[in-house]
């Protein structure tokens, strides 16, 4: 009798275990996908001024909820992984012309030029000069999607191809792109200014490109001539402060660090002959032993220390990161500047976000935009599962640029009116 009772109780026990297992799996899914996180408008940091009030009225995306895809869009990791793996969905193929510039050290810089597909909203000639993320170029899907959208809104687009990033373009000097070298970007900007003397510039940088464009603008006041505004998306502001966080396993940053280092190794090794060949006149500090260290590197910091810093003769990794980071140049930028980061970006530690927050508290020209979700260069939008081709980031950058163009037009019209009134008096 007792044996029969024990047997009848076993199914109930197993059902309880199954129920607990299902509950545990659901809990993990909810936690990993961050499903309980609310949707909200981005946090905005700025000083009250005529410009900021105009932007709030003219840029609805700054005050509207950013709503990512329901199932996975609140996970910064999935947003980042989708950006990294597939870039964008149904990405267009804008048609452009590739331009080549020979640099003073013999390097061959390239950029792609795309003409506008419509008249700009203010009727002016405006060129977006765009600097992509680490090891990226004009053929990346997120760049193609953004360029196509900008063209349709009346912008000419010039997109820098980082030195060594395009697989079909050989290096012509023993040097690659680095974290903060602005030479190639500056050469592209100068080409645009000379070729289109009436154009005005909107400067845009993504991730590492955000560091480069901000550093470029802050290097000299002359670099800000003819620049209407600058937008930086998902950069980390200080490589020196970021290096410690990149070695932490929190938010899997150490894993992302390994993946990016592996990609950088492949790019460097694809140019092995141009960088390390016997016939190459290498920088004095770059030795053959650095190539062997490159093979065993598992982090970006090791690659930067053994190879990248030596392209420009820095004596230490600390010096390289201090000099190449835009943080020491941001306060020298006087044109309107929008800095965008996502709070759930797994690559940019929250401690780094104190830099743009502090800057926006001191400078009237700076607005810091911080949505809850978006990951690293993700910012996908969509209803439940499938994302839209165009992202919140694409729309925000163009909307901000349009607003700044209108702001400048209104300012010039007001100035003209004041001059006429003064002449009448």
UniProtKB/TrEMBL annotation:
GO function terms (MF aspect): acetylesterase activity; monoacylglycerol lipase activity
Keyword Membrane applies: yes
Membrane topology, record value: Single-pass type II membrane protein
GO cellular component: sperm flagellum; sperm plasma membrane
The keyword Transmembrane is annotated on this UniProt entry: yes
The entry's keywords: Cell membrane, Glycoprotein, Hydrolase, Lipid degradation, Lipid metabolism, Membrane, Serine esterase, Signal-anchor, Transmembrane, Transmembrane helix
One of the GO biological process terms: steroid hormone receptor signaling pathway
EC number: 3.1.1.23, 3.1.1.6, 3.1.1.79
Residues the record marks as active site: 207, 345, 376
Reaction(s) catalysed by this chain's protein: Hydrolyzes glycerol monoesters of long-chain fatty acids; hexadecanoate ester + H2O = an aliphatic alcohol + hexadecanoate + H(+); a triacylglycerol + H2O = a diacylglycerol + a fatty acid + H(+); an acetyl ester + H2O = an aliphatic alcohol + acetate + H(+)
Pfam families the record matches: Abhydrolase_1
Record InterPro entries: AB_hydrolase_1, AB_hydrolase_4_CS, AB_hydrolase_4_sf, AB_hydrolase_fold, ABHD4
AB hydrolase-1 domain sequence ranges: 127-382
Broad class of the protein's primary localization: membrane
Coiled-coil residue spans: none
Localization per Swiss-Prot or TrEMBL: Cell membrane
Family: Belongs to the AB hydrolase superfamily. AB hydrolase 4 family.
Protein name according to UniProt: Monoacylglycerol lipase ABHD2
Name of encoding gene: ABHD2
């Amino acid at each position: 009798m007792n044996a029969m009772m024990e047997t009848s109780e076993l199914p109930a026990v197993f059902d309880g275990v199954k129920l607990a297992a299902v509950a545990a799996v659901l809990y993990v899914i909810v936690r990993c996908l961050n499903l309980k996180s609310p949707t909200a408008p981005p946090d905005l940091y700025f000083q009250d001024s005529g410009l900021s009030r105009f932007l709030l009225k003219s840029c609805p995306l700054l005050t509207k909820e950013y709503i990512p895809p329901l199932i996975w869009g609140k996970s910064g990791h999935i947003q980042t992984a989708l950006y990294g793996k597939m870039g964008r969905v149904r990405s267009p193929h804008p048609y452009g012309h590739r331009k080549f510039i020979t640099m003073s050290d013999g390097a061959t810089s390239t950029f792609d030029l795309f003409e506008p597909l419509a008249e700009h909203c203010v009727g002016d000639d405006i060129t977006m000069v765009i600097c992509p993320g680490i090891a990226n170029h004009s053929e990346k899907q997120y760049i193609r999607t953004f360029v196509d959208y900008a063209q349709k809104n009346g912008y000419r687009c010039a997109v820098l191809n980082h030195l060594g990033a395009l697989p079909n373009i050989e290096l012509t000097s023993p040097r690659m792109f680095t974290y903060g070298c602005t030479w190639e970007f500056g050469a592209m900007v100068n080409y645009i200014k000379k070729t289109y003397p009436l154009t005005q510039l909107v400067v845009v940088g993504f991730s590492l490109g955000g560091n480069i464009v901000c550093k470029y603008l802050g290097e000299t006041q002359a670099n800000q001539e003819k620049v209407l505004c600058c937008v930086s998306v998902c950069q980390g502001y200080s490589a020196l402060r970021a290096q410690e966080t990149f070695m932490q396993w929190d938010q899997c940053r150490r894993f992302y660090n390994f993946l990016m280092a592996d990609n950088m190794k492949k790019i460097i090794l694809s140019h092995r002959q141009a960088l390390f060949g016997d016939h190459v006149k290498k920088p004095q500090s770059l030795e053959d032993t650095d190539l062997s260290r490159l093979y065993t590197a598992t982090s970006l910091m090791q690659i930067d220390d053994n190879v990248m810093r030596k392209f420009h003769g820095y004596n230490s990794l600390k010096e390289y990161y201090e000099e190449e980071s835009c943080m020491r140049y941001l306060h020298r930028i006087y044109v309107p500047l929008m800095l965008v980061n996502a709070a759930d970006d797994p690559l940019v530690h929250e401690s780094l976000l104190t830099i743009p927050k502090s800057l926006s508290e001191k400078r009237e020209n700076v607005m810091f935009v911080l949505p809850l979700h978006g990951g690293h260069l993700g910012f996908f939008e969509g209803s439940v599962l499938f994302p839209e081709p165009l992202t919140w980031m694409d729309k925000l950058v163009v909307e901000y640029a349009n607003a700044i163009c209108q702001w400048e037009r209104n300012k010039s019209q007001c100035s003209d009116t004041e001059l006429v009134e003064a002449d009448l008096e």
